[in-house]
Amino acid sequence: xxxxxxxxxxxxxxxxxxxxxxxxxxxxxxxxxxxxxxxxxxxxxxxxxxxxxxxxxxxxxxxxxxxxxxxxxxxxxxxxxxxxxxxxxxxxxxxxxxxxxxxxxxxxxxxxxxxxxxxxxxxxxxxxxxxxxxxxxxxxxxxxxxxxxxxxxxxxxxxxxxxxxxxxxxxxxxxxxxxxxxx
Length: 183
What we know:
Elements: H1 2-19, H2 21-27, E1 52-54, E2 63-70, E3 76-81, H3 86-92, E4 105-111, E5 114-120, H4 128-132, E6 140-143, H5 148-182
C-alpha cells in the first residue's frame, strides 16, 4: 500500500514536470499541488452545468483552476488545461454573453499579499497581447456588463422630457408673440 502511494506521488510529480506545471506553481505561491487535477481524476465527476466545470477538450493535460465571473456563458470555477491563453480560456467558459462589455476584460491575480490587475480589450476579437497572455492557477477573469442599453433607455426618456419642456416653452413664447401682434 505504502509503495503504491509513493509510486503514485512520483508519477504525479513526473507528469507535472513534463507538462510544465511545476514552474507555474512556483509563481503561484498560494496554490497547492492538490488544487490541480489530472484528467484521470475527473473521469467520474459530473460534467453537467453548475458552478464547477472541467475541460474535456484536451486529453492527458493537467488542469488548473481559473475563475470566470461576470458576463460569460458559464460563470464559475473552471478547470482548464495548464498554459491556456486568455482567449481560449474564455472560450472554455462559453465566451462573453450578449450583454458583455468586452472592452474591459479584467484579470486579477494574487501575487503574494497583493492583487495584480490586468485589463484587456477584446471588443474586436482582442489584440496579440490577449491572444498570447497565459492564464495561471487561481486567476480570476471578470467581464463586466455593458450598460449601454440600460443607459440608452434612461437618456432617451430624459431627451423626451427635455423636448416636451422646450416645445412647451417655445409654444408659450409663440402665443405671446401672436397676442402682442394682435394688440
